[in-house]
Amino acid sequence: MKKLAIIFMAAVTIALLFSANSMAGEVLKRIEAKGTLVVGTTGHYPPFTVKDTKGRFMGFDIDLATIMAKQLGVKLDIRQMPIEKLFTALEEGEIDLALAGITITPKRNTKVIFLGPYYVTGQSILGKKPIVTRVKGPDDMNRPDFTLVVAKNTTSEQVAKALVPKAHIILAANMEDAFNMVLSGRAKALFADEPFCVVAAFRNKDKDLAVSEPFTFEPLGVALPETDLLWMNWVDNVLMKLNAVGELKKLKEYWFHSPDWMTRLPKKGRFM
After folding, report:
1. Of 211, 232, 247, which marks where a domain is finished?
2. What is d(CA 5, CA 198) in angstroms, rounded to the nearest whole number?
């Protein structure tokens, strides 16, 4: 029996080694072969990802992707797609990683690998100042006459349904549509990550908007396919180094605490 157990354990170890070897380098080899790092993003979630006046992508996440491409010595190809498509694209090998202010959740983690968090935020509400100042907590929104808009297929949708199930929750196609519903009065407030709400309020100072304190804890991470241990390790080490040398801190200061970059946004009262 002891010999059989030893043989079995040896077989398992060999199988695991072969499995690990098959996962080592697949994505990195693809990147090197094409000479391109393909990154998926939503493109409408400032200050993480958004387009400037010339239609070029910019944001905290875009800067991270640019640094990674530079360190790999390859070109950067940004692919825009809805957030639900990002995870499918990772699984199918259409993109090498996803960066879009993505909240790490247990459910999402069953499909893709997450590294981080590289930023921690929380869900806040954005709305007209008289409405937001009256909201001291979830209970103030948890009633049928409180219309709350969220972008569909986001953690904002999940949290809103769990936090204020009695509220009238509207699902918008994206963040831009959700924001416009608040401006038009079709919704009393928008539920989203605090950085987005702050940017929207700052960009529309003449609209008498306000942002609440965060109601939740939201860790954001880099999403990766589960097929390459070496690629995971490389990205993890890049994030660790950027944090160690203070580069992540500089990026956060610029994108989350300085309004300078907002001059590069389209002057249309919108974010796309």
Report:
1. 211
2. 60
Angle in degrees, CA 236, 36, 117, rounded to 5? 25
Alpha carbons 197 and 212: distance in angstroms, whole number: 9
Q: Helices (DSSP H) in 57-112: which residue ranges?
A: 60-72, 83-91
The string of DSSP letters for 195-256 reads HHHHHHHHHTGGG-EEEPPP-S-EEEEEEE-TT-HHHHHHHHHHHHHHHHTTHHHHHHHHHH
My answer on whether 148 and 172 are in the same domain is yes
CATH number for the domain spanning 228: value is: 3.40.190.10
Cα distances (Å, whole numbers) of residue 62 to 42, 98, 151, 177, 252: 11, 10, 21, 22, 12
| Strand partners of residue 211 | 126
Tokens of 126: 């954005």
Angle at 243 between CA 255 and CA 99, to 5 degrees: 55
- For residues 63 and 198, state if they share a domain: no
Q: Is the peptide bond before 47 cis (omega within 30 degrees of 0)?
A: yes
The string of pLDDT tens digits covering residues 132-158 is 999 999 999 999 999 999 999 999 999
Q: Which residue has the tokens 């993109």?
A: 95
Range of the domain at 248: 2-120+219-264
Q: Whole-model pTM?
A: 0.80
CA R_g for the chain: 21
Give the separation between CA 5 and CA 14, rounded to whole angstroms: 14
CA 113 to chain centre: 13
pLDDT in tens, 189-208: 999 999 999 999 988 889 99
